[in-house]
Write a structure and sequence with these properties.
Blueprint lengths: L17 E5 L7 H17 L3 E5 L6 H6 L4 E4 L10 H9 L8 H8 L1 H10 L7 E4 L5 H8 L3 E4 L10 E3 L5 H9 L5 E5 L3 E9 L6 E2 L3 E4 L7 H5 L5 E3 L6 H17 L5 E9 L5 E7 L9 H7 L5 H10 L11
Parallel strand pairs: 1-2, 1-3
Antiparallel strand pairs: 4-7, 5-6, 5-7, 8-9, 8-10, 8-12, 10-11, 12-13
Catalytic activity: 2 D-alanine + ATP = D-alanyl-D-alanine + ADP + phosphate + H(+)
InterPro entries: ATP-grasp, ATP_grasp_subdomain_1, D-Ala_lig_Van_CS, D_ala_D_ala, Dala_Dala_lig_C, Dala_Dala_lig_N, PreATP-grasp_dom_sf
Cofactor: Mn(2+); Mg(2+)
Length: 326
């Protein structure tokens, strides 16, 4: 799978104009977004970009319009920033932006809809059920077995997620996830190794960066172990044979394309230990850019600095909806 190159040395960052870095927001991932955005802002400024911070969580869309940004880098995670709602507003305001458009952002944010599309396209993903107030939980246990994973389908960063080992634990797990979303995702638990694949580009140009393996304490890659500990180990490039590496990267790029993603993203993957078969879990259309984040780590493995990565992503910003004729 081809990887990316750093931006051409002749590229003039000043040509990008006045840039807004959007971070903070109103989601449960606000704190992580602030860390991501602060890093992106500093990186762009260090390369001569006229970049300015903007927090949609405390500033209005009217204020965003008044800034007259030529383009924006979206460093928001979760609801109102990664789910298509902000992307729609930017389309209305005519401000080019990084990452996926309205539809791909919305679909990618919804893990249930994502899995429906992947199943149709024969992209391997764990079996699942959508649970609402009318669902018989005994049927979930029969269909998926134990252990299983319960999570809110519209949240990220492992927020509201529970591993259910016993039947009597299922209701509490569903109640926890239902505190975030009315419909809850129950998913077959896959025992194996955890990986992630960063993807850059759009359509036929989309390509994978080296695979990162995540080795968390006791296999628990939760919110704390993602962002606030040095105990989690990362191996990049992951120690896999060439055939499996190609297979995982191919599935990741196909999964990214199937949702219509563009610009950049990250696909999370589990490889089942019993047969080394990969299963795709979700796509992140606005991945983390913190000191612990995985996309910058994968970029470094092919010689792309954090600053050059930010520049490349920013340079890909555009409006996705065609202008109406008339």
């Amino acid at each position: 799978m081809n990887t990316v190159n750093a931006p051409d040395s002749s590229f003039d960052p000043a040509s990008l104009g006045k840039v807004g870095v959007l971070f903070g927001g109103r989601s449960a991932e606000r704190d992580v977004s602030i860390m991501s955005g602060t890093g992106v802002l500093a990186a762009l400024q260090s390369r001569g970009v006229d970049a300015h911070p903007f927090d949609p969580g405390t500033q209005s869309l009217a204020e965003l319009a008044d800034q007259h940004f030529d383009r924006v880098f979206i460093a928001l995670h979760g609801r109102y920033g990664e789910d298509g709602s902000l992307q729609g507003a930017l389309e209305q305001l005519g401000i080019p932006y990084t990452g996926s458009g309205v539809m791909a952002s919305s679909v990618g944010m919804d893990k249930i809809t994502t899995k429906k599309i992947w199943k149709i396209d024969e992209i391997p993903t764990p079996d699942y059920m959508a649970i609402d107030a009318s669902t018989d939980l005994d049927e979930v246990l029969v269909a998926l077995g134990l252990p299983l994973i319960v999570k809110p389908p519209l949240e990220g960063s492992t927020i509201g997620i529970t591993k259910v080992n016993k039947a009597e634990e299922l209701k509490a797990a569903v109640d926890l996830a239902a505190g975030f979303d009315e419909v809850v995702l129950a998913e077959e638990f896959v025992t194996g190794r955890e990986f992630t694949v960063a993807v850059l580009g759009t359509g036929k140009t989309a390509r994978a960066l080296p695979i990162v393996e995540i080795v968390a304490p006791e296999g628990n890659y939760d919110y704390q172990n993602k962002y606030f500990t040095d105990d989690t180990l990362y191996h990049c490039p992951a120690q896999l044979d060439d055939v499996l590496t190609e297979e995982i990267q191919r599935h990741a790029v196909n999964a990214y394309r199937a949702l219509g993603c563009e610009g950049w993203g990250r696909v999370d993957v589990l490889v089942r230990e019993s047969d080394m078969r990969p299963f795709l879990l979700e796509v992140n259309t606005s991945p983390g850019m913190t000191s612990h984040s995985l996309v910058p780590m994968a970029a470094r493995a092919v010689g792309i600095s954090y600053e050059d990565l930010c520049l490349e992503i920013l340079a890909s910003s555009r409006l996705k909806m065609p202008k109406a004729k008339g």
